[in-house]
Amino acid sequence: MATPAHDTVTGTGRSGVPAPRKAPAARPAPGRTRRGAGRRGGGWTPWLYLAPALVVLAALLVYPIYQLGLISFLEYTQAQVSGGEPTSFQGLGNYRTLFSDSQFWQVLLATVGFAAACVLATLAVGCALAVLLTRIRAVPRLVLMLAALGAWATPAITGSTVWVFLFDPDFGPVNKVLGLGDFSWTYGRWSAFALVLLEVVWCSFPFVMVTVYAGIRAIPGEVLEAAALDGASQWRVWRSVMAPMLRPILVVVVIQSIIWDFKVFTQIYVMTGGGGIAGQNLVLNVYAYQKAFASSEYSLGSAIGVVMLLILLAVTLVYLRLLRRQGEEI
Amino acid sequence: MSLVPSGLRIRRPGRLAAEATALAVALVVAFPLYWMVLSAFKPAGEIQSTDARPWTLSPSLDSFRRVFEQEEFGRYFVNSLVVAVSVVVASSLIAFLAATAVTRFRFRLRTTLLIMFLVAQMVPIEALTIPLFFLMRDFGQLNTLGSLILPHIAFSLPFAIWMLRGFVKAVPEALEEAAYIDGASRTRFLWQILFPLVFPGLVATSVFSFISTWNDFLFAKSFIISDTSQSTLPMALLVFFKPDENDWGGIMAGSTVMTVPVLVFFVLVQRRLVSGLGGAVKD
User: Entry's Gene3D superfamilies (chain A) (predicted)?
Assistant: First the structure.
């Protein structure tokens, strides 16, 4: 686990935010010497190959991020958008408005809680089924794999509509089987979140399952055989042999799931009709959308976007540190 | 590649229980899709019946007919396809070049760039809807398919580059040297040797960019504001949601039409996808 000592060794500063950000830029030098500087530099060729990617990313990712930040500091509502009024600089005014709004904090809390629940459930289901896949013969494995691929392939919007229909109080089969009568899942806050959670887990566990399964298969059979010959128990094999070898994959799926579940939009929007009754099921993404496009509060929407960006950036930094601690060469 | 790690061989009853569990899970997982297709084929009367039955004795194409007649559904379908295919092709090519640059050359800023690609993957694209909306407006791209294609290329790239890296790295360097010794130019090596070798990786990568583009709902909703002839499938589906009474038959038929192409695509590339993911994570 992370210790300050470790950081000093790798030369990463740890005071405040700016230091870790600067760290990556400082990395190339030691990295290059370790791999040997003798390999081709290629002159301009690598930059030629990179040019299209860099142009697209600069225009459609970097510039919009800059714009997002900028708008969040301006007064930007319908009046400014249609070109009538001049924009005025608000400083941190939008953020002050946002942070003093109790609904924002409530939505933030709901987003984090909802994402955490989704991530945990997805990982648990995905990993358990990946292990299950390794213990069954080809035919049942193919059946489960195809079913999972089906769920994975289903577009978010169709998945959302189908799940709402399955749980429809009047025409859905679920209430009938469970004997719930005309219980409306989308009416209550918790049951609505639970329904969306089920759909999210349904469509995102396949990624975890397939990736972890692919990872398990990539473990050389001899290693496991050797462990078995040495008399290691199943649990021991998993804990001491497989888990460490799978760690890079597990890190990838955890991070992907966090990122993915933190910015769920379609499911909430479609299943709860734009954020639930009186906004009880809002998450940050939908909240930002509603603020910007429904109430034309573009600057507030942008401020929410910035908050999301910062949270995910923090997750990314943790990810980068994990990668580096594993000694993976980037 | 060993099929089942032999160290994990388990006794028969255990395996049978595991297989039964797997089949039960498969059933639960597939059920929503079954219900979707079933409901699409149910006649209106049965859908509106409160007695939901998991079969139908009188399948009908009424819902599909309604879907295709109303609102130029076929056109939306083509639009969705154009957007997704453009994104897949463009981002694959661009990512292939970029992945080659960062894996087969050593240059200043290489590591910095890689970290930037990694960070870019994490950017919540939904948060950029507002600035992208203004960007598209300023370039007169609102209400065009371009406003959907361009952002999705940008968003697919970082992940595609990151993923392809493993595949490009896996091509032995000796091969490259041999090609040069035989007098091949860099361009020739790139397209005639490296590209075919990396192709399976490109397929796996394409699945992700295809899905994320085909799924897009937010941009379609935000950027195609008035010209519905430029709409994509997700928007067409919303037509059947009505304030008083949802047209579930239409929604399910539309959903079926929207899901089946992706499903077919997935099943076709299934093997490549699994080995592709394995290849990318093994690194």
Answer: MetI-like
Question: Domains plus CATH for chain B?
Answer: 13-60 (no CATH), 71-282 (1.10.3720.10)
Residues in chain B with CB shorter than 8 Å from the CB of A173 are 35, 52, 54
Q: Does A150 sit within 8 Å of B30, measured CB to CB?
A: yes
Burial B180-215 (b: 16+ CB within 10 A, else e): eeeeeeeeebbeebbeeebebbbbbbbbbbbbbbbb
CA distances to A190, A290, B197 from A194, in Å:
6, 22, 45
Domain chopping of chain A, boundaries:
101-218+244-295+317-325
Residue B265: its chain A contacts at CB < 8 A?
153
Give A268-280 as a DSSP string.
HHHHTTTTSGGGT
**Measured distance CA(A219)–CA(B73) in Å, rounded:** 47
Q: What was the ipTM of the complex prediction?
A: 0.84
CB A170 within 8 Å of CB B50: yes
Interchain contact B47–A (C-beta under 8 A): yes
Over residues A154-186, the pLDDT tens digits come to: 989 999 999 999 998 888 889 888 888 888 898
Dump pLDDT digits (tens) for A33-91: 334 333 566 788 899 999 999 999 999 999 999 999 999 998 877 777 776 677 778 77
Residue B44, chain A, CB below 8 Å: the answer is: no
Q: pLDDT tens-digit profile of B29-48?
A: 999 999 999 999 988 888 87
pTM of the model: 0.83
Task: Place domain A101-218+244-295+317-325 in its CATH homologous superfamily.
Answer: MetI-like (1.10.3720.10)
Q: Which of A299, A292, A289, A284 has its CA nearest to residue A70?
A: A299
Query: Min CA distance, A4 vs chain B (Å)?
Result: 22
Cβ separation of B7 and A288 shorter than 8 Å?
Answer: no
Which chain B residues are within 8 Å of A210, Cβ to Cβ? Answer: 273-274, 277
* Structural contact between residues A291 and A76, judged by C-beta atoms closer than 8 angstroms: no
Residues 6+ apart with CB under 8 A from A313: B119, B122
Q: How do A88-89 and A74-75 pair as beta strands?
A: antiparallel
